[in-house]
Each structure stands twice: as structure tokens, then as C-alpha cells.
Amino acid sequence: MQHEPLSPDDPLAPLPFNPYKSNRGLTRAWHAMKNSLAGFRVAIREESAFRQELTLAAILLPCGLLVPVEPVGRVLLLGSVLLVLIVELLNSSVEAAIDRISLERHELSRRAKDLGSAAVMVALGMCLMTWGLIVGPLVVRWVKAWF
């Protein structure tokens, strides 16, 4: 049985050759790690919001390791902080792509950037809620013990 050739718009059609995707195995992993580290360097150098959140993470991550909570609580504390960093990196990448397309003001560009910012705000709120629910009662107990 012969099949019709797939049109270029067909989602099952093979993608055109990409010379940047020719690496396999450990070589691919090595290049992926180099690109990831380059992304961290760019975020630290260019994104003030990422630097602020990284500073917050530098404080909260050690606290999350030291606070006496169950392992699941610890994972939630650390994961909520890491989630903020992940969402900020994704937001920064959306903003960079929008700016690459055009620096002119456009409603869709504004909407995309606002949605990315809203995602960061949700992640920050979730982090605050997680820390408040898990560490808050411990802090209250410590304060009551002092007074």
C-alpha cells in the first residue's frame, strides 16, 4: 500500500535537517550543559529580576535544608524556590524572543510579556504560601518559646 507524500504543513512530516541537532549521546549532553550554563550567565548578567530571585534562593535554599521538617515538606520548600527560578528563566526567554521579533509596541507583545510576568507572580505566591504554611507554625512556636 502506497501512502501519499506528507505536505510540509503536516505535523507528521519529517523536519528539515538542523545542523545544530546532529550531536548524539554524551556529546549532545555536553553541549546541552554548556548551553544551559551560558543561559545562566546571561540571566545573571542581564536580568535584574533573576538576580533578585537568585539572591532570595541563596537565602531560602540553605534555610530549607536546615529547618526541621519532614522530607516531603523539605521538598516542597526547596521546590517552590526552584520553581520561581524556572518560571523567571522562561519569562526572560519569552521577553527575549518578543524583543528579537520587534521592539515596537504591539498589543500581542505586551500581552505575552504580561502573561509571563503573571506566571512569575503566581510562582512567587506559591512559594510564599508554601513557606508560610510549612515554616510559619515553626516560627510561631520559636517566638512563643522565647517570650
- What is the helix content? over 70%
CATH class: Mainly Alpha
Describe the sheet with the most strands.
none
What amount of the residues lies in strands?
A: under 5%
Query: Over the alpha carbons, how many angstroms does the gyration radius reach?
Result: 22 Å
Q: Helix-strand pattern, N to C?
A: HHHH
Span between termini: 84 Å
CATH topology category name: Helix Hairpins
- Principal-axis shape equals elongated
Number of helices: 4
The number of distinct structural domains comes to 1
Sequence stretches where pLDDT stays below 50 over 5 or more residues: none
What does the average pLDDT come to?
A: 91
- Quickly give the CATH architecture: Orthogonal Bundle
Query: Helix- and strand-based class?
Result: mainly alpha
Number of strands: 0
